[in-house]
Write a structure and sequence with these properties.
eight-stranded parallel beta barrel; 22 helices; globular
Length: 694
């Protein structure tokens, strides 16, 4: 296929100081839960992105001194850490891309739980979040030491093979940014007071880095031009712009973004593609250096618009590069319709927060490139003569059919409803979740191009009909349903329900059941569903109260960076939230609640109760087929096996297509990276422990 000439501009080479990117696709620093804990997995993931056409591929933020230790990310404290990073740069260079590293000192944000050093800050004060510690105010000697550490890290970055080194001053997560911020910097010396003084540290770090490696590497800065908190923070029409103007020609590239991380990586529910443009478009007006920015870009037309309107020189991306590492290559090869577009759900972020290799709803191969040998675009051809029946065309069934079809198997996909997508189709109709339909749309488009995959709608299968197909391999992907009895994490036995009471599940709301009056939502799910339903019901004209046994409503959404957005939206909609409270019974016109500690029993008047608690697998067909036995091999996948996230369902479908349900449960199905026992133990056992009893 031939590339559309409109997109040619995206493949122009762009110079960054002494190095040149082969195109305008720039994978910005992206946390991934692998870092120094799973270094080969991390390196292989970056290498696949380079193979997919990203001209610049960055590691995640890199802490370069033990006074700022971030256990999830890569580090470059000294020469000992070079081999891990060199493994990544080698894999990136193998495909002709530039490798980037962002040097980060997180200041008061890192509690330094490994090094046990007190965090640094410009002026002292409490550390970040709820950690029970204060910071030490950095003094002039500390600043001189920071200069030395930055220079040493920059030189080590060159030894590790990096082509671009950035200084981190963004997201309210980095010490140079803390110095710029009036909220954090109350100093009265040459590093405090005026903006010029507050910018001094960032200027010095850029200059030191350029002096050390500027002839070999591009040297950039990542900076948030607007904190989105109004006059008390940095704004793009005030100090944000002034900082860029002061340093305009100093770095070789500007990596520009906005807000804290929850704002910069906002989910599609709360922010549209390209939302940062109005904040960052001034930067190219005040510097001749190239500018990269982000905006969850997935449309090549939007990307071209950013370039031609003079907003950006590079199309920056983290999440879109996770959903489709081959996004640039598909545009280059004239296949933009094949892009697996990011849905902006931030399931990737949740795993990073959990300290585990990231996952992706759209891309089930993410983090499995080395561990399982899964490539995002290539898959082994059929290894058996099976014919395949997949019952259920939700996320698991669609992905299984797509991947099995790609392998060359003859596949029959039977769906009981008259439309494909299962829960994805239903959930994507809820407020703010329309982008989630991309999970369905991408797979349907791919399947429609496969002559070896047949799709049958309005085809509810029973055990007899499954047997009649004669297919040797059957995957049951019939999904799950929400319970209406309140059973979930907190309540273990069904809640008593009086005759005449109106009690609904999320499935009822998604099916179009009309609700009016006062609704009590019992949320024991703790992710997005309760708040999305609350929003949907308010839009129907209902008054909504949320009761949850947790201390915080939608608590798991902290992991997806949505908790603040959700709480704000609930406040705007006048949704009452009652935490640490459970449901004891549902009567006609009321619900009986009690505090989780056995206090505050009361009847709350309401017209309807919506239970968002546990789910039940629709596994009756699977159980019947399994009990029957016979020549067909029967496998349950996705929510039919156990209800989970859409990402888990897609992964289950993909895994089935790879292993055909034949994986040996007694064999670990992926490679592991084991920590090597240190040999530096000479004489340790003979030494008395200081303070030990004699």
């Amino acid at each position: 296929m031939v590339r559309d000439a409109r997109y040619d501009v995206l493949f122009d080479p762009v110079r960054i100081g002494p190095v040149t990117s082969r195109n305008r696709f720039y994978q910005t620093p992206q946390c991934n839960g692998m870092g120094r804990t799973y270094p080969t997995s991390m390196a292989a993931m970056r290498g696949v992105k380079a193979e997919g056409g990203w001209g610049v591929v960055f590691a995640e933020q890199c802490d370069f001194h033990y006074t700022s230790d971030n256990t999830r990310n890569v580090r470059l404290w000294d020469e000992q850490d070079i081999p891990i990073l060199a493994r990544m740069t080698d894999m990136v260079h193998e495909h002709g891309s530039l490798a980037g590293l962002m040097l980060a000192h997180n200041g008061f944000v890192t509690p330094n739980i490994i090094s046990r050093e007190l965090p640094y800050s410009p002026s002292g004060g409490p550390a970040f979040g709820i950690f029970p510690t204060h910071t030490r105010a950095i003094d002039r000697d500390d600043i001189k030491a920071l200069h030395r550490w930055t220079r040493a890290a920059a030189l080590n970055a060159v030894r590790a093979g990096f082509d671009i080194v950035n200084i981190y001053a963004a997201h309210d997560l980095a010490l140079p940014f803390h110095f710029i911020s009036r909220r954090h910097n109350q100093r009265s010396d040459e590093y405090g007071g005026s903006l010029e003084n507050r910018v001094r540290l960032l200027r010095e770090l850029i200059e030191i880095t350029k002096d050390a490696i500027g002839d070999k590497c591009g040297v950039g800065v990542r900076f948030s031009v607007d904190e989105l908190i109004g006059p008390k923070g940095i704004c793009c029409d005030d100090e944000g712009r002034d900082v860029v103007e002061m340093l305009a020609e100093l770095p070789d590239i500007w990596d520009i973004n906005i807000g804290s991380w929850p704002q910069d990586s906002i989910t599609s529910r709360f922010g549209e593609e390209g939302r940062q443009e109005s904040y960052v478009k001034f930067v190219k007006q005040v510097t001749t250096k190239p500018v990269v920015g982000v905006g969850r870009f997935t449309s090549p037309d939007t990307m071209v618009g950013q370039i031609k309107r003079g907003v950006l020189d590079f199309i920056g991306a983290a999440r879109p590069s996770i959903a489709d590492p081959f996004l640039p290559e598909k545009i280059r090869a004239g296949r933009p319709d094949d892009i697996r577009e990011c849905i902006g759900c931030n399931i990737c972020v949740t795993n990073n927060y959990l300290g585990a290799p990231i996952r992706c709803t759209q891309n089930p191969t993410m983090s499995e490139e080395w561990r399982r040998g899964w490539h995002p675009e290539r898959i082994e051809r059929a290894t058996t003569d099976d014919t395949v029946l997949i019952v259920g065309a939700g996320p698991a069934g669609l992905e299984a059919a797509r991947a099995m079809g790609q392998r060359g198997y003859h596949v029959m996909l039977a769906e009981a409803r008259t439309e494909l997508g299962g829960r994805v189709t239903l959930e994507s109709r809820l407020p703010g979740l329309n982008a989630w339909a991309r999970v369905r749309d991408h797979r349907v488009q791919q399947i429609q191009a496969m002559a070896n995959v047949e799709v049958f709608l309005d085809s509810r299968m029973d055990a007899h009909e499954v047997a009649e197909t004669g297919c040797s391999l059957v995957a049951i992907a019939t999904g799950s349903q929400w319970r209406t009895d309140g059973v979930g994490r907190h309540i273990r036995q069904p809640v008593p329900v009086a005759d005449g009471a109106t009690i609904l599940s999320p499935d009822d709301i998604m099916a179009g059941t009309q609700v009016s009056g006062h609704v009590v939502i019992y949320d024991d799910d703790h992710f997005y569903m309760g708040s999305v339903l609350a929003e949907a019901l308010v839009k129907q004209g209902c008054t909504v109260t949320v009761v949850t046994p947790a201390a915080q409503f939608a608590g798991f959404s902290q992991m997806s960076l949505e908790i603040g957005h959700i709480q704000r939206r609930m406040a705007e909609l006048s949704v009452e939230i009652v935490p640490l409270t459970t449901v004891e019974a549902v009567g006609e016109g009321y619900v009986t609640t009690a505090g989780v500690f056995g206090t505050d029993h009361q009847d709350r008047a309401c017209d309807t109760v919506v239970m968002v608690a546990g789910q039940i697998s629709n596994d009756a067909l699977y159980k019947e087929l399994s009990q029957r036995g016979g020549p067909q091999r029967i496998v349950a996948i996705g929510d039919c096996q156990a209800p989970a996230t859409i990402a888990s369902a897609v992964f289950a479908g993909h895994k089935f297509a790879r292993d055909l349900g034949l994986a040996d449960p007694d064999i670990v199905p992926f490679l592991r990276e084991d920590v090597e026992l240190s040999s530096n133990l000479v004489g340790w056992s003979a030494l008395p422990l200081k303070g030990a009893a004699e």
